[in-house]
Amino acid sequence: MHTFAERFQYLRKLTGLKQAEFAGRINLSQGRLSDIEKGKNKPSADTLVSVAQQFSTDVNWLLMGTGTAPQSIEIMNENLSLGEASGRLDSELLTEHIAEKELISKFKMLNKDNRKHIEKFMCYLIFEQQDYSPTTQGFSSQENC
C-alpha cells in the first residue's frame, strides 16, 4: 500500500464495514469517503482524529505508511455514535489517546531487551517524579518494575 488512498480503503475493508457504514461512523458522506478512497480528496484533521479514535488506528501509518499496518481493528462500541463519543471526549482527550496509541505502537517495535530498558527507565522516572522510594512506598522493584 503505497498511497494514502490505498491505506484508507484497506482500513475500511479491514473493519468489514461498507462505505456507508464506515462513513457514518466518522461523520462523512459516502461520496466523500469514496473520493478519499479514490485519491480525489484528503480527509480533514477532524476526520483523521475520528478514524484514530473509532478504529484505534495509528495516524502515522495511515498518513505516511510508517510503522505497522493494522492486522485487525478494535471498533468502539457499535451502539455509540460518533456524535455521542465526541460529546464525551474533548479534543485534549482524543489527542492524548492518539499519542498513547503511537507510543504503544513504537514500544511494540522494540526487541525484548530494549523493552526491558524502557520499562526500567519509566519506573525510575515515576519514582523520581513522585519522590517515591521503592522501600518507603511499599513498591518492590520485582513487583512493579
From TrEMBL:
Domain HTH cro/C1-type per the UniProt entry, residue ranges: 8-62
Signal sequence, start to end: none
InterPro entries membership: Cro/C1-type_HTH, Lambda_DNA-bd_dom_sf, TransReg_Diox_bact_type
Single GO term (MF): DNA-binding transcription factor activity
Record has DNA-binding as a keyword: yes
GO cellular component, one term: cytosol
Keywords: DNA-binding
Matching Pfam families: HTH_3
The protein, known as: HTH cro/C1-type domain-containing protein
